[in-house]
Design goal:
single chain; 10 helices; flat
Length: 286
């Protein structure tokens, strides 16, 4: 039996034990799924009456309109949060103390404030329309969180990169844009996408301020007394769509990460053939 660097390769008895554990876990999961299906059938959740709303064109258009509103709110919040994060991160990295303290105060305040409280404050106290109120709350919270991600990513770059850039005579702005940020993107990207997934899911808070997003449309259908309150069917329709959008965003993050790994160090580069050059002063003549 050979050893690896991190752990010993399991032997025959250990592999058999792991297979038993796997079978037991699979059986437990199947039993849980079977129990959930039994409860759904026992409570008549699959009767045609509760699924009838989804065949009407008006219901389908309402769901599609809600999905479009969800994606619109997410697009606005994502772009604005990234822009706000860049500004706050630049402030936190500033050498000027008042700027750094102001940016730190804003980041800590908006990170500690619950998203729903900010949304309600903008909607009720400032009397803003539902879409701007939702986008504002999502932007302030996610922008403050992403600002810390940006700052940490820049600090994760080796200090020698910064010192070498300054030694070449580059200004701080040039060091940030041409040296530190491009290298920090690889470290920041998974966390950035994870936070954007959080923003996508938090768009569902819009139904609390009467914004007609995807969950709001589902709530209207689920509360319909004409179809015996089809709450579970609505959940079974809406949940996979939310999960699919989050998985699509995660897949996009993985695709970008793989693209980032293909750098000049690993790709073939054509090199010109060596040619005789001018000798340095004082070099021996050949």
């Amino acid at each position: 039996m050979s050893d690896t660097v991190l752990y010993d390769v399991p032997g025959p008895r250990t592999r058999r034990r792991h297979r038993v554990y796997g079978l037991l876990a699979t059986a437990a999961i199947l039993a849980l799924v079977g129990w959930a299906l039994y409860l759904l059938f026992d409570t008549d959740q699959f009767t045609s009456r509760k699924w009838t709303p989804f065949i009407y064109q008006g219901i389908q258009e309402m769901l599609l309109r809600g999905l479009a509103n969800t994606l619109k709110a997410f697009a606005y919040a994502a772009v604005l949060a990234l822009a706000l994060a860049a500004v706050l991160a630049a402030g936190r990295l500033s050498e000027h103390r008042p700027v750094r303290w102001t940016a730190t105060l804003l980041v800590e305040f908006f990170r500690a404030m619950p998203v729903l409280v900010m949304i309600f404050f903008v909607f009720v106290a400032l009397k803003v329309q539902p879409l701007p109120a939702l986008v504002t709350g999502l932007t302030l919270y996610n922008g403050s969180v992403l600002a810390e991600v940006f700052r940490t990513g820049v600090h994760s770059v080796d200090r020698g990169q910064r010192e070498a850039a300054y030694a070449l005579g580059m200004r701080k702005t040039q060091v940030m844009t041409h040296v530190l940020v491009p290298q920090a993107v690889r470290a920041m990207l998974p966390t950035i996408i994870s936070q954007l997934v959080v923003a996508l899911k938090d768009t569902s808070l819009g139904y609390l301020i009467t914004y007609e997003e995807f969950l709001h449309a589902g709530k209207l259908i689920a509360s319909n007394l004409d179809y015996d309150l089809p709450f579970i069917p609505v959940v079974m329709v809406i949940s996979p769509i939310y999960i699919g959008m989050c998985m699509l965003l995660s897949w996009f993050a993985n695709w970008v990460a793989r693209r980032q790994q293909r750098n000049l160090k690993t790709e073939a580069v054509e090199v010109n053939a060596a040619e005789p050059g001018t000798l340095l002063p004082g070099a021996p003549q050949q």
